[in-house]
Design a protein that fits this description.
By secondary structure, this protein is an alpha/beta fold. 33% of the residues lie in helices and 21% in strands. Strands 2-1-3-4-5-6 form a 6-stranded parallel beta sheet, with helices on both faces. A 5-stranded mixed barrel has the order 17-18-19-21-20. Helix 10 packs parallel to helix 11 and helix 14 packs parallel to helix 16. The structure holds 5'-deoxyadenosine (5AD) and iron/sulfur cluster. The site of iron/sulfur cluster has 10 residues, from helix 8.
Length: 494
């Protein structure tokens, strides 16, 4: 197949995966199993686990922790649901439509369960945490409900079900980081992997359910993070994404005020952690997600610029371009502060790609406030954006304090307007790459064509190019000659 034969619109649809989506974005892709592989367990009991992950990268990472815990208990993973003894859905609760999708998916298991009454169905993650035991009443098919901090108890919960009871554990923890668990890598590509560096969130953005479903923020021991990165590199992985709801507030042995928790022991902040991981090997690319504009400091940017292998890409959710809306959202920064952070990124890392999240139709959003979001987008010209209609979530500050008063059709119209702006900017951003050469890390065969590779630039742009004698995990130089709004098309030069 010739390059020019590629239908670029189809590439755009096919190449997107959660790898390309830095934060919670269940609307952007079909979630589910993706390129998961079947993995043999450590000690077998001949039982098989089928796991689907929805929502953010953290959930995909958590599913690998779950697979590891269950591997110890004798479960291998399968990608064939028909042969599963245990089906787990790792769920998202960020917007109502994410939950509706999961409920719909559960109804599809009815037949499987009537064919195999011993099959166990469990709901994990944020929706489990939000609804707790109520989920068992609402969804009769579900046997297990386990929240994000309860995965170590899964083997025990399965035993309870085997004894004829339904099982729930939704306790949140202030300490659990699963630091000692070596995740079973479910993604097939063997090149890119997630490393979770912290859990929970203390920010209380007024629209967000995450602090309620994932609990208090806690950071993972840096030694275990660096060890995991070394281990991945030795196994052939060439890119790690450090994950946290707000990575800039990573801190080890430090209080929020910046004082040592334990005298005599070193402290580590996010910039230092990133440097430690970058030093594992210059051939190991480092990404991270997600940053919070209030916490993203210049030392993080300077560390990024100092290390060739820390990727030039920042996902910096703005949510709104209007300071009053930002205040109602409890984001604790203003439009001006955000723009100053953008200016700092462009000054310290001139080649850095920037993406964002935007919510349209938040409580009380006026037409003028919406116009300010549009003008901010025009000013910044993001390379990529995830855009959502506001969806009221139970228990959040916004639900308690404000009325969800922007009519549905206004939310939809405003969302369409910002999507149109972003589509134009994404295309401009990609067009700028035409004629330039980039170092690309090869991740996999293009889903559109066996004769093409798919890989990413440091700026996180997906590149498709014809195969020669390379293999996945190789770094190659690719010159771009064409693009769509989502994919670059090029040819290898070195
Ligand atoms: N409604 C719409 N979008 C939301 N997000 C978080 N909570 C909501 C909500 N209630 C979006 C934010 C966040 C991203 C992960 O999801 O933009 O950055
Ligand atoms: Fe939610 Fe805000 Fe925490 Fe992100 S930083 S998870 S939007 S509360």
């Amino acid at each position: 197949m010739n390059n020019k034969d590629l239908n670029t619109t189809e590439i755009l649809e096919k190449e997107n995966s959660p790898q390309s989506s830095p934060h919670n974005n269940p609307d952007q892709y079909n979630g589910e199993v993706l390129d998961y592989q079947s993995v043999k367990p450590k000690n077998t009991n001949n039982k098989k686990l089928y796991i689907e992950s929805y929502g953010c990268q953290m959930n995909f990472s958590d599913s690998e922790i779950v697979a590891s815990i269950l591997s110890e208990a004798g479960y291998g993973t399968t990608t064939n649901i028909e042969e599963a003894d245990l089906i787990l859905l790792n769920t998202c609760a960020i917007r109502d439509n994410a939950e509706q999708r999961i409920r719909k998916r559960l109804t599809q298991f009815k037949q499987l369960k009537s064919d195999n009454p011993n099959m166990v169905v469990g709901v994990l993650g944020c929706m489990a945490e939000r609804l707790k035991a109520k989920l068992l009443d609402e969804e009769k098919l579900v046997d297990i409900v386990a929240g994000p901090d309860a995965y170590r108890s899964l083997p025990g919960l399965i035993d309870e079900v085997d004894d004829g009871r339904k099982a729930v554990n939704v306790l949140l923890s202030r300490e659990e980081t699963y630091a000692d668990i070596s995740p079973v890598r479910l993604d097939k590509n063997g090149v890119t992997a997630f490393i979770s560096i912290m859990r929970g969130c203390d920010n209380m953005c007024s629209f967000c359910v995450v602090p309620f479903t994932r609990g208090r923020e806690r950071s993972r021991d840096p030694k275990s993070i660096v060890h995991e990165a070394h281990d991945l590199f030795d196994k052939g992985y060439r890119e790690v994404t450090l994950l946290g709801q707000n990575v800039d507030s990573y801190r080890w042995n430090l209080t929020k005020k910046g004082e040592l928790k334990k005298e005599g022991e070193p402290s580590v902040n996010f910039a230092q952690l990133m440097a430690m991981v970058a030093e594992v090997n210059p051939k190991l690319r480092v990404r991270f997600s997600t940053s919070h504009p209030k916490d993203m400091t210049n030392d993080v940017l300077e560390t990024m610029s100092a290390y060739e292998n820390i990727c030039n890409y920042i996902h910096l959710p703005v949510q709104s371009g209007n300071s009053n809306v930002l205040e109602r959202m409890n984001r604790t920064y203003t439009r001006e502060w955000y723009l100053e952070r953008i200016e700092a990124i462009r000054r310290i890392i001139p080649e850095c790609a920037i993406s964002t999240d935007v919510i349209s139709g938040f409580c009380g959003e006026t037409e003028e406030e919406h116009e300010e979001t549009k003008s901010l987008m025009e000013f910044v010209q993001f390379d990529f954006a995830y855009m959502f209609k506001y969806s009221e979530r139970p228990r959040t500050l916004a639900e308690r304090k404000f009325e969800d008063d922007v009519p549905e059709e206004v939310k939809t119209r405003r969302l369409t307007e910002i999507i149109n702006i972003q589509s134009a900017h994404s295309l401009i951003s990609n067009k700028k790459t035409i004629g330039k050469e980039y170092e690309v890390l090869i991740e996999k065969t293009s889903k559109r064509s066996e004769e093409h590779w798919a890989g990413r630039t440091s700026q996180n742009a997906m590149v498709v190019f014809p195969k020669l004698d390379e293999k996945t995990g190789d770094y190659v130089k690719v010159k771009i000659f064409d693009c769509t709004a989502a994919t670059l098309i090029g040819e290898r030069t070195a």
